[in-house]
Amino acid sequence: MADPAVPAVAGLDREAIDPTSLLALARTDADGALASFVGVVRDSQDGHEVLSLEYEAHEPMAVREMERLAADAAGRWPIGRVLLRHRLGEVAVGDVSVVVVVAAPHRAEALEACRWLIDSLKAEVPIFKKEYFADGTSEWVGEGPGF
């Protein structure tokens, strides 16, 4: 049976994500560094006032891809725990939309792996974003979901 104290590597959340709790879950006594990226919804995009975002995903595929990225990072750098969380559903301006946490013995590897993970997650994981604007319009970023 899995140890409940060790969090799942990847997850999609419909409720708020708490970055502080993820930092605490990632850390072990072997780690001298915790690197994190916390993405929040901003209030504007290309001159348009943003009210909220909506995220959709092919959930099983997205989680598998996030797990693959975490495993790839562990193969590239000497790191410890990796935690990846992304919101789904409607997310308001100022709310956390994505969190990446990397624990490692040393800061350089933690920082490099964290940067690579957020860039790879945004480019490769099938999570789709729709922006809702104050003028009543909305649009999918990129191609939008195809499922």
Report on the architecture of this protein.
With 147 residues, this protein is of the alpha+beta class. Helices cover 30% and strands 36% of the residues. It contains three helices and nine strands; from the N terminus they run βαβββαβββαββ. The strands form two sheets. Strands 3, 4, 6, 8 and 9 form a five-stranded antiparallel beta sheet that branches. Strands 1-5-7-2 form a four-stranded mixed beta sheet, sandwiched between helices. Helix 2 runs antiparallel to helix 3. It is elongated, with a radius of gyration of 16 Å. The chain starts with 9 loop residues before the first strand and ends in a 7-residue tail after the last strand.
Short description:
The model is unreliable at 1-6 (pLDDT under 50). The protein is α+β, with helices and mostly antiparallel strands and 147 residues long. The chain has helices spanning 19-26, 59-76, 107-124; strands at residues 10-13, 33-40, 44-45, 48-57, 82-87, 89-92, 96-104, 127-133, 138-140.
Topology:
Elements: E1 10-13, H1 19-26, E2 33-40, E3 44-45, E4 48-57, H2 59-76, E5 82-87, E6 89-92, E7 96-104, H3 107-124, E8 127-133, E9 138-140
Helix pairs in contact: 2-3
